[in-house]
UniProtKB/TrEMBL annotation:
Keywords: ATP-binding, Hydrolase, Membrane, Mitochondrion, Nucleotide-binding, Transmembrane, Transmembrane helix. The chain crosses the membrane at residues 20-39, 46-64. It catalyses: ATP + H2O = ADP + phosphate + H(+). One of its GO terms (cellular component) is mitochondrial membrane. InterPro entries: AAA_lid_BCS1, ATPase_AAA_core, ATPase_AAA_CS, BCS1_N, Mitochondrial_chaperone_BCS1, P-loop_NTPase. Belongs to the AAA ATPase family. Gene3D superfamilies: P-loop containing nucleotide triphosphate hydrolases. It holds the Pfam family AAA_lid_BCS1. It comes from the Eukaryota. This is BCS1 N terminal-domain-containing protein. Residues 50-244 form the BCS1 N-terminal domain. One of its GO terms (molecular function) is ATP hydrolysis activity. It is found in: Mitochondrion membrane.
């Protein structure tokens, strides 16, 4: 009998144990348990079940997403609001005030100082009940807690219809900071209800800002390649134009010129003559004379927003870049540009040439009229209804006498309105005391100037 052996260098297929396949997917220390319970024969079935389950789960996820996308596209109406848009904060504040936000068990809690949301959110009942006897400065120091639904799906009713709100966090690689998308969706192909929600939220804040002046400041780009944006930083009560220390004729000339520029027919007038629809002003004078105050008061009077920036802070701004922003080919039209400076002689002539600056207003140090106006504005008390007319007339006469004395003590065009106002605030509601200490304050201030301690 002959016995055949395979050549030494030949290779035959070896049988692979199912258990060895399973070991690739499970920890090795579980292999003895499989052998102990006699599950070796069940390994192929287990592997088949795992493969089929994984494929089914992957397929279900894919097709569910596809179906949901198609269903939304053809059977629902959706509105998107991105967090880089100002409307985002309007909507978030509106959502926080809705009843469903108070009931949700999955929410985001924040303390946002200075944002539009913080301006609109009041203290909750729980916060109001805590430490009611705390000093007012302690209560003012604490920002109210703000609650909004967390990222994900939420449902609520609006005018009897179900609305789906989805908060989506965008963590794309291009974004330097996570952005967010709000999606409001309703059944049906008519988006009118969504537009009503957006309009209601926007109008609500337009009403809240009706007696306020909103200030925006620049913010760096949020992602690679995107331009810088403006963000709302605060909203302050509008300042009456009468509180600005400046000759009445100059104030009226400044405001009337802006009003004429903002007239609806003015833009067409500029366009018909090929003139860029822009208007520029230069307010110059010593520090503390009211340049920024006039800008703020005019914006409040005319319902304009302020977009504030400073070239002194950001030294990266070049003159050519600034000129390009002011009246370059791509610069926006329909805006009012106000330049303020303490040293107009240091400005480049190209920056303030006609066409870029259309009107210049000089602010001077406080004269007799300004000094008297400041004293009257700060020291005059509100009228009390219960006070007898004769008594009120006597106090008014006494106040006028103090105004005249104060104006005689204060030197003319030596101090800025801000300096005099600072002194008067030290003696608020004490007109007699303010007059008594005025002479000493003037002497001390003049000596400090001579010693170089103040400008």
């Amino acid at each position: 009998m002959a016995t055949l052996f395979p050549p030494a260098n030949s290779s035959l297929p070896t049988q692979v144990s199912p258990l060895s396949i399973l070991e690739a997917f499970i920890p090795s220390y579980l292999s003895p348990l499989i052998s102990y319970f006699g599950l070796n024969n069940a390994v192929p079935h287990i592997l088949t079940f795992l493969v089929i389950s994984t494929a089914a789960a992957t397929g279900w996820t894919y097709w569910y997403d596809q179906f949901a996308c198609l269903f939304r596209r053809f059977f629902m109406s959706t509105a998107q609001i991105r967090s880089r848009d100002e409307l985002y904060e309007h909507m978030m504040a509106w959502v926080a005030e809705q009843e469903f936000s108070a009931r949700t068990r999955y929410f985001v809690a924040t303390m946002a100082f200075g944002s539009l949301f913080a301006e609109s959110a009041g203290e909750s009942e729980e916060e109001e009940s805590q430490e009611p006897d705390a000093p007012y400065w302690e209560r003012n120091r604490r920002a109210p807690l703000q609650f909004t639904p967390a990222p994900g799906l939420h449902f609520f009713k609006y005018k009897g219809k179900i609305v789906m709100l989805e908060r989506i966090v965008d963590n794309s690689d291009k974004a330097w900071f996570p952005q967010e998308i709000l999606e409001f969706s309703i059944m049906g192909r008519e988006p009118q209800l969504l537009k009503e929600i957006l309009k209601e939220a926007r109008e609500k804040y337009l009403m809240k800002d009706k007696s306020k002046t909103v200030v925006h400041r620049p913010k760096g780009p949020t992602e690679v390649g995107s331009p810088p944006t403006w963000v709302r930083c605060l909203a302050r009560p509008s300042r009456p134009l009468s509180t600005v220390v400046l000759e009445q004729k100059q104030k009226e000339m400044f405001v009337d010129d802006i009003k004429d520029y903002l007239e609806p027919d003015t833009q067409k007038w500029y366009s018909d003559r090929g003139i860029p629809y822009r208007r520029g002003y230069l307010l110059h004078g010593p520090p503390g004379t009211g340049k920024s105050s006039l800008s703020f008061a005019a914006a409040g009077l005319l319902g304009l927003k302020i977009y504030d920036t400073s070239t002194e802070v950001d030294t990266r701004v070049s003159l050519s870049g600034l000129l390009n922003v002011i009246d370059g080919v791509a610069s926006p039209e329909g805006r009012v540009l106000i330049l303020t400076t303490n040293h107009p002689e240091k400005l480049d002539a190209a920056l303030i040439r006609p066409g870029r600056v259309d009107m210049k207003i000089e602010f001077k140090l406080a004269g007799e009229e300004a000094i008297a106006g400041l004293f009257m504005r700060i020291q005059r008390r509100r009228k009390e209804a219960k006070r007898v007319a004769e008594e009120r007339a006597v106090k008014e006469k006494r106040l006028l006498e103090l105004v005249a004395k104060f104006a005689q003590i204060m030197p003319q065009e030596v101090f800025s309105p801000a300096e005099i106002q600072g002194y008067l605030l030290q003696h608020k509601n004490q007109p007699e005391r303010a007059v008594e200490c005025a002479e000493k304050w003037v002497c001390d201030r003049m000596e400090a100037r001579k010693a170089g301690k103040i400008d």
